[in-house]
Amino acid sequence: MNNKAVLDLPLRMVVTVIMGGAALVIVLSFLFQPCLFPKELQVCWEPPVIYEGREEEINVTVKNEKGMPVSKATVMISGLNITKVGETDANGSVKIYIKAFLPKYRNEGYLDLYIKAGSCYKKFCQENAIKVVRG
Hints:
The chain is of the alpha+beta class and 135 residues long. It has two domains: 1-32; 42-133, Sandwich (Immunoglobulin-like), CATH 2.60.40. It is built from one helix and eight strands. The chain has one helix at residues 3-32; strands at residues 42-46, 49-51, 55-63, 74-79, 82-87, 93-99, 108-116, 124-133. The strands form two sheets. The chain has a five-stranded mixed β-sheet with strand order 2-8-7-4-5, with no helix packed on it. A hairpin with a 2-residue loop joins β4 (74-79) and β5 (82-87). The radius of gyration is 25 Å and the shape is elongated.
C-alpha cells in the first residue's frame, strides 16, 4: 500500500475545493457587479432651502468623477411624508417639483436626496439635503 497517496489525496481535495470556491466567488462577483471599483458621483442641487406649501422646483445635476454628465440616473427626494422621483436627461439634469407641508408643531423640516446611477457608480445619499421652512 502506498502511504504517500493516502496522505496526499485529502490535501489535494482541500486545495481543489478552496481554489474552486475562490474562482466561483470571482465569477459571481463579476456577474452581479460588473465594475470592480464603483466610481463616485458628483451631485449638485438647488435651492438648498424651500418654503412650505409652495410648489418648488428642485434642480439636480449628476456628473461622474471627470465632470461629464450622467444620464438616466434615478433621483429621489423624500421626507415629510412625500417622495418624488425623476430621471436625469442627457445633460445629467432633472427638475423635480415638490410641495412640502410641515407638521403644525414644527417650523422647519428636511428632505433627503438619493441617487442611483447604474452598477458602475456608488449610490449617493445625502440626508437633510433640502431644508423646508415655514413661510
